Amino acid sequence: xxxxxxxxxxxxxxxxxxxxxxxxxxxxxxxxxxxxxxxxxxxxxxxxxxxxxxxxxxxxxxxxxxxxxxxxxxxxx
Length: 77
Fold this sequence. Notes:
Elements: E1 8-11, E2 16-17, E3 23-36, E4 39-48, E5 60-65, E6 70-72
Antiparallel strand pairs: 1-3, 1-6, 2-5, 3-4, 4-5
């Protein structure tokens, strides 16, 4: 797994803060990365990817557990 700027990631609900349901995010910035509660976590900024593949206009922040992040391919961004 490679958490990089420009990638689209999917994270299970129990592996990011804060929100409900799985997170699908197009990453525009990685603010920090380091240990937390025995795992490596990263603070990222990006845009939610909607079910139709479009991006939400408003950017959001998320704190994600790096080992639970999956890079996914989205057809339309």
